[in-house]
C-alpha cells in the first residue's frame, strides 16, 4: 500500500519533470545568469549549484553571491526552484531524504556542505522564516527564548529576558505583546505570529536571515508591517527573501534574482530588473505574461 | 430558450424531492444501525446486572458461639501446632446444635451443620487469635451461610418460586425458622471484594484476580509503552525510508492482526521453556501481553507523531535544534496525548485478554492473593472463565458480578483515555 503510493508519486514526479523539459517553456537558458550575479566581498557565495530530488533535477548550475547587509529577492513562477535554492543555503534540505546538493556554497568563505560544518551550527548563523507562520504551541516568551536557550546564549534569566525583549522590539512586536508574554504564541493574529517567528529567528543573532515567502499567508496591512521590518533589519542582517509578489520584491530588495524552472536567468539591481530586464524570460514574467 | 430553461428547472425540482427522500433514507439507516448497537449494549447490561447484582449481597446466619477450649482441643493459644489442628468448625456445629436442639439423627445433623459455610471456622480462628481473651466466652456472631442456603434465601419471593436446588425441605424449614427469629439476613458481600478464588462460592472473591490483573498490567505498561514509543519515534523520525523499513512496517501491521493465542504459544515456548520464567506468574503474563499490545502502541504512536505538523519541526530545525532536540522538545510533547490514548486502549485490550494467558498457565486455581510479580496469579477475565465453568449455581451470579467489575475497570480506563486526550491536547 505505502510502497505503491511511493512509486505512484515517483512516476508522477517523473512525468512532470519530462513534461517540463519538453514543454513550450524549454527555451535557451543563459549559460551564466545575465546581469551582475557576483559582488565584491560577498557574505555568501554559491557556485555551480545543482539540486536533485531523487532523479529529478530541481536546480541547474546556479552561480550567485549575496552581499553583506543586502536584501536580495528571489522571484520566479511557481515551481522554479527558488524555495529549494533558499533551503539549500542553510541545509534545511538535509531533512528531505531524496535531496542532493552539488556545487560550492560558502558562508564567509567557509564551505557550507563541508564534512566539518555542523548543520546545527550553520542554522544558528543562517536563520529562517517560513511561508506559514509557525510559532511553537508555547508561550510567546518561550517561543523567542527557545533558540538562545538551545545554544546557551544566556547564562542568567535576566540576560534571557533582555534577549527576548530586544528581539521582540526589533521585530516590532514588543509593544503589542509585552503584557502577555506568558500567553501562547499561537493565539496571536497571523501577522503577529509571523513577526514572532522573525523575533524567534533574530533571537539567536544570525548573520543571514532567509525568508521563504514570509507574507504569502498575510493580509496587506500585516504584509506592510513585515516589509517595513525587513527594511529595518537589513541594517544589521543579510537577508534573502523568496517572494511571489513582484511589488514586494521591488519594495524591499536591493537586488533581484529571477529563477525560471531551476535556472537562474537574471540577477541585477532591483530597479534595473523591473525597468529594463535584459532577458526575454524575465521581461515576460515582469510584464505578466506568465507566473 | 426560456422553454428549455423552464423544463430544466422542473427536472431539477422533481429530482430534488427524490434526492431529499434518498437522504432521509440514508439517515434512517444510520440511526437504525446506532439503535441496534445501543439495544445490544442495553441487553448486555440488563442481563449481566440482572444476574450479577445479587452477588454483591451475602446471606449470614446469627448464632451464639462459645469458644470452648475442650471442643477446640487447645490448651495454649501460643502453640501454633495446636491452633492449626484445632477444630474451629466444631464450634460452629455446637452453636447450631444449641439453636436447633431437637435434631439428633446423624443424617439430619449433617444437613444442619451445612447451613453455615465451611469457611466459618477460619473466621472464628482469626477472631480468637486477635482477641485471645474471648477464650471460654460466648458471643453472638453473624456467620456466612453456605452457598446453597444463600442461593435459596436470595430466591425467596422471586418469580417462579424459590430455587430449592440442593436445599432439602428440612433445611428450608430451618431457614424459615431462622427468618422468623430474625437470625438470618442479607448484607453487603465484603468477601467478594477481599478474598481470592475458592471452591466454595460463598468464600470466593475477585481480589486475587484483580491483584493479578494489576501486576500483569504494570509489567505490560512499563515494558510496552517505552519500547513502543521508542520504536515509533525511530521509525517516524530517524529511520531511512527503504525496503527494510517498509518490511518492518508491514510486519508490525501484521502483528496487530495475529490471533492472541499465538502470542500465548510464543510466550510458552520462549519465556517459560527457553528463559525458564516461572509459569502462572504476572511477570510472564505481562511479557506475553507486552508482545500483544506493542503493535497497537507502535501504530497509534506513529499516527500521533505523523499528526504533528511538519511546520513545527521545520521551525525547530530552523533555529538550530538537533534532530534529537526536535523530537524531545516538540514532537513528543505534541504527540503525547495520542500516544497515551493508544497506550490506554492497548492496556484495556490487555486487561480483557484471556486466550494467551491460558497458554502460560494463568488459568490455574489460585486461592492466595498474589503479593508480587512472581507469585502465581490469575487475572479478571480468566477468573470469569473459571467461574463460568463451575457447576455450583451460586457461581452464576459471581460470574456476572466479576464481569461487572471488569467492565467497570474498562470503562474507567477508556474514560481516562478521553480525559487525558482532552486535557493534554494542544491546538496549533
The CATH H-level homologous superfamily of chain A: P-loop containing nucleotide triphosphate hydrolases
**Helix vs. strand class of chain A:** alpha/beta
Task: Give the fraction of residues assigned to helices of chain B.
Answer: 55-70%
The count of strands of chain B amounts to 3
Number of spatially distinct domains of chain A: 1
Principal-axes shape call of chain A: globular
Largest sheet of chain B: 3 strands, antiparallel
Question: How far is the first residue's CA from the last residue's CA of chain B?
Answer: 53 Å
Structural summary, described in words:
The complex is a heterodimer of chains A (291) and B (428). By secondary structure, chain A is an alpha/beta fold. Chain A has a single domain, classed as P-loop containing nucleotide triphosphate hydrolases (Rossmann fold, 3-Layer(aba) Sandwich), CATH 3.40.50.300. Chain A has 11 helices and 11 strands. Chain A has helices at residues 2-22, 82-89, 119-125, 140-151, 157-170, 174-177, 190-202, 220-233, 246-252, 270-275, 280-286; strands spanning 34-35, 42-53, 56-67, 71-75, 99-107, 110-111, 126-129, 208-212, 238-242, 255-260, 263-269. In chain A, β8, α8 and β9 (238-242) form a beta-alpha-beta unit. In chain A, α4 runs parallel beside α7 (190-202), α5 packs across α7 (190-202) and α7 (190-202) packs parallel to α8. Chain A is globular. Chain B has 428 residues and is mainly alpha-helical. Chain B has 2 domains: 57-188, no CATH class; 207-424, Orthogonal Bundle (MetI-like fold), CATH 1.10.3720.10. Chain B has 18 helices and 3 strands. Chain B has helices at 2-52, 69-72, 80-85, 88-99, 106-113, 120-130, 147-155, 169-181, 190-194, 207-238, 243-256, 260-274, 282-306, 310-318, 323-351, 355-359, 380-388, 394-424; strands at 57-66, 138-144, 184-188. Chain B has a 3-stranded antiparallel beta sheet. In chain B, α13 packs across α15 and α17 (380-388) runs antiparallel to α18 (394-424). The longest helix of chain B is centred in the first third of the chain and has 51 residues, at 2-52. The mean pLDDT of chain B is 90. Chains A and B meet through α1, α3, β7, α4 and α7 of A and α14 and α15 of B.
Amino acid at each position: 500500500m505505502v510502497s505503491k503510493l511511493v512509486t505512484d508519486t515517483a512516476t508522477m514526479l517523473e512525468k512532470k519533470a519530462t513534461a517540463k523539459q519538453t514543454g513550450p517553456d524549454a527555451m535557451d537558458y543563459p549559460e551564466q545568469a545575465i546581469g551582475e550575479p557576483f559582488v565584491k566581498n560577498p557574505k555568501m557565495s554559491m557556485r555551480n549549484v545543482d539540486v536533485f530530488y531523487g532523479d529529478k533535477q530541481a536546480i541547474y548550475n546556479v552561480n550567485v553571491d549575496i552581499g553583506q547587509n543586502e536584501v536580495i529577492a528571489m522571484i520566479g513562477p511557481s515551481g522554479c526552484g527558488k524555495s529549494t535554492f533558499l533551503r539549500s543555503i542553510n541545509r534545511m534540505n538535509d531533512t528531505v531524504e531524496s535531496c542532493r546538493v552539488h556545487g560550492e556554497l560558502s558562508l564567509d568563505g567557509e564551505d557550507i556542505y563541508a564534512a566539518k560544518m555542523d548543520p546545527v551550527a550553520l542554522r544558528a548563523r543562517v536563520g529562517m522564516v517560513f511561508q506559514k507562520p509557525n510559532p511553537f504551541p508555547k508561550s510567546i516568551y518561550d517561543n523567542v527564548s527557545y533558540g538562545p536557550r538551545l545554544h546557551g546564549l544566556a547564562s542568567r534569566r535576566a540576560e534571557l529576558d533582555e534577549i527576548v525583549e530586544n528581539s521582540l522590539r526589533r521585530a516590532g512586536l514588543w509593544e503589542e505583546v509585552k503584557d502577555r508574554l506568558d500567553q501562547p504564541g499561537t493565539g496571536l493574529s497571523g501577522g503577529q505570529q509571523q513577526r514572532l517567528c522573525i523575533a524567534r529567528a533574530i533571537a539567536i543573532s544570525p548573520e543571514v536571515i532567509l525568508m521563504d515567502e514570509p507574507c504569502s499567508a498575510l493580509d496587506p496591512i500585516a504584509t506592510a508591517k513585515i516589509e517595513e521590518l525587513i527594511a529595518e533589519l537589513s541594517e544589521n542582517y543579510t537577508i534573502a527573501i523568496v517572494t511571489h509578489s513582484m511589488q514586494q520584491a521591488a519594495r524591499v530588495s536591493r537586488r533581484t534574482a529571477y529563477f525560471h524552472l531551476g535556472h537562474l536567468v537574471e540577477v541585477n539591481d532591483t530597479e534595473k530588473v523591473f525597468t529594463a530586464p535584459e532577458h526575454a524570460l524575465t521581461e515576460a514574467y515582469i510584464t505578466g505574461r506568465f507566473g | 430558450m426560456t422553454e428549455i430553461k423552464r423544463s430544466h428547472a422542473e427536472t431539477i425540482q422533481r429530482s430534488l424531492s427524490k434526492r431529499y427522500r434518498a437522504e432521509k433514507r440514508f439517515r434512517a439507516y444510520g440511526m437504525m444501525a446506532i439503535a441496534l448497537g445501543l439495544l445490544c449494549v442495553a441487553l448486555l447490561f440488563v442481563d449481566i446486572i440482572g444476574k450479577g447484582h445479587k452477588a454483591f449481597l451475602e446471606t449470614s446466619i446469627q448464632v451464639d458461639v462459645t469458644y470452648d477450649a475442650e471442643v477446640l482441643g487447645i490448651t495454649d493459644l501460643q502453640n501454633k501446632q495446636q491452633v492449626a489442628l484445632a477444630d474451629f468448625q466444631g464450634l460452629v456445629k455446637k452453636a447450631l446444635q444449641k439453636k436447633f436442639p431437637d435434631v439428633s439423627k446423624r443424617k439430619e445433623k449433617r444437613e444442619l451443620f451445612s447451613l453455615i459455610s465451611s469457611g466459618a471456622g477460619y473466621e472464628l480462628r482469626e477472631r480468637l487469635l486477635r482477641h485471645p481473651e474471648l477464650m471460654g466466652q460466648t458471643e453472638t456472631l453473624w456467620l456466612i451461610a453456605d452457598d446453597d442456603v444463600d442461593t435459596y434465601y436470595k430466591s425467596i419471593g422471586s418469580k417462579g418460586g424459590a430455587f430449592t436446588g440442593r436445599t432439602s425441605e428440612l433445611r428450608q424449614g430451618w431457614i424459615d425458622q431462622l427468618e422468623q427469629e430474625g437470625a438470618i439476613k442479607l448484607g453487603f458481600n465484603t468477601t467478594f471484594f477481599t478474598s481470592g478464588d475458592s471452591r466454595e462460592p460463598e468464600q470466593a472473591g475477585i481480589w486475587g484476580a484483580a491483584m493479578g490483573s494489576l501486576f500483569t498490567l504494570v509489567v505490560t505498561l512499563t515494558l510496552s509503552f517505552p519500547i513502543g514509543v521508542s520504536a515509533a519515534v525511530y521509525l517516524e523520525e530517524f529511520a531511512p525510508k527503504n525496503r527494510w523499513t517498509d518490511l518492518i512496517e508491514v510486519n508490525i501491521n501484521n502483528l496487530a492482526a495475529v490471533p492472541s493465542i499465538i502470542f500465548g504459544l510464543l510466550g510458552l515456548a520462549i519465556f517459560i521453556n527457553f528463559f525458564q520464567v516461572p509459569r502462572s506468574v504476572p511477570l510472564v503474563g505481562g511479557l506475553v501481553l507486552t508482545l500483544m499490545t506493542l503493535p497497537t502502541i507502535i501504530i497509534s504512536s506513529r499516527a500521533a507523531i505523523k499528526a504533528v505538523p511538519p511546520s513545527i519541526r521545520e521551525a525547530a530545525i530552523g533555529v538550530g535544534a538537533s534532530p534529537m532536540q526536535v523530537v524531545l522538545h516538540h514532537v513528543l510533547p505534541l504527540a503525547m496525548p495520542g500516544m497515551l490514548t493508544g497506550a490506554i486502549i492497548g492496556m484495556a485490550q490487555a486487561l480483557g485478554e484471556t486466550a494467551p494467558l491460558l497458554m502460560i498457565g494463568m488459568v490455574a486455581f489460585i486461592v492466595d492473593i498474589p503479593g508480587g510479580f512472581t507469585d502465581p496469579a490469575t487475572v479478571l477475565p480468566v477468573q470469569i472463565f473459571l467461574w463460568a465453568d463451575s457447576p455450583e449455581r451460586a457461581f452464576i451470579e459471581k460470574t456476572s458480578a466479576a464481569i461487572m467489575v471488569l467492565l467497570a475497570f474498562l470503562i474507567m480506563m477508556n474514560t481516562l483515555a478521553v480525559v487525558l486526550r482532552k486535557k493534554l491536547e494542544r491546538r496549533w
